[in-house]
Amino acid sequence: MKSLVASVFFFSACTAANPLYLGPGGQGKPDGATARDLGATSNDLGTTHHPDLAPICTDGERMCAGATSTVCKSGKVETDRHCPTDGTCAAGYCQPPAAMVGSVEGQECDPNGSPFDGFCIQSSTSLTCQPFITDASNQSLVWVCADAVGPGGIGTSCTHGSECRSGFCGSNGTCFRACDPSPSLGCPQQTNGNPPRCEQVDIDVEGVPLTEYGCVL
Question: For the chain, how far is it from start to end, CA to CA, in angstroms?
Fold first, then answer.
């Protein structure tokens, strides 16, 4: 009788589910395993820090990339201004060209107190009147005759200054060309269409906001 009872107990114990049994395919848990037996550590799903997404510069910081001035925005370096070919970039700002003998290149182009593109063109059609920062902390600048940057002239639609002769795209969405509001020093006359008007236009000169007279159609 004792032998029969022992046999019944032995077979009933073997039919109970064993939580430590791995079974076919290893779907169970190994001996002593916890709820994290699948390697679900705190950073196995890519929650670690990503150094490639870290800022590479400080917002507002200015630098030079060859003959281009750049500025840091949202931790990334962005192109700000394409300097004229006869100028350079230093300390994050485009520099005016050196004065040339027998030309107005490198000379200031605001003899009457207002920048005037015509002053530069009288010497060479490749020149334009452009602003250059002299003291960023005081937002001081000087207007100088320098090589044209892009091809766009009066009334040319633009999204960036590199598309314009002056190197600046005005707040009105067209290329900026400096003009003197004096009647005799206004904008050049055109053979067809409406004559350009000399009106105030906003431009950004490497972080310095400026309102100046420009030719608009």
Answer: 115
Question: Tens digit of pLDDT per residue, the chain (217 long)?
Answer: 444 444 444 444 445 555 555 555 555 444 554 445 544 444 544 444 545 556 689 999 999 999 999 999 999 999 999 999 999 999 999 999 999 888 999 999 998 889 999 999 988 999 999 999 999 889 899 999 999 999 999 999 999 999 999 999 999 999 999 999 987 788 887 656 778 999 999 999 999 999 999 999 8
> 112 to each of 6, 16, 108, 132, 134, how far by Cα in Å?
118, 103, 11, 18, 20
Separation between Cα atoms, residue 1 and residue 186, nearest integer Å: 124
- Contact in structure between 188 and 118 (CB atoms under 8 Å): yes
**Token code pair at residue 92:** 């994050």
Domain boundaries in the chain? 54-216
pTM: 0.72
Say if residues 145 and 116 touch (Cβ distance below 8 Å).
no
